[in-house]
Amino acid sequence: MKKIVIISMVALVLLCSGCDDKLDVQQAYDFLLSTMPVQTKIKLWETVEIRCQLNRKGMYEDAKYYIGYFQTEGKGILQKPNGEVLAPNDFYELDNETFRLYYTSFCNVQQLIDITLHDNFDQEYKFSLSFTNNTEGTGSRSVISTVQKSGSIFR
Prior knowledge:
The chain is mainly beta. Helix content is 10%, strand content 44%.
């Protein structure tokens, strides 16, 4: 009888010490932004379409994603399909994982825009688009010339 009580107490201690009432839910998943090939030569006042796709490695319902940009060279604007102009250094919440942006050139020199995508878990993905002046013919198409990865999402 004494043996059964000791075994029961040991089993109870093991059961209680091995339990954790907290559920560990992964919230932050790696992500990146892919684009269709983007025109790299652009004329003054010409608009280039940038087709984007957010690619998430996992799904968390409360994850939110934001996009912003900074123009380091040249002059132009980046806007949404509805015509809303994005202000440099501001971030805008993404409504969809597939979306389009439109860049319009305001100059005849090389233009460089750095686009940053981040989530509500402080992970970010950065890439750059570079446009050169095109004074003749139509613009050529190629893949993004420079892609930079930063933040904790690439382990």
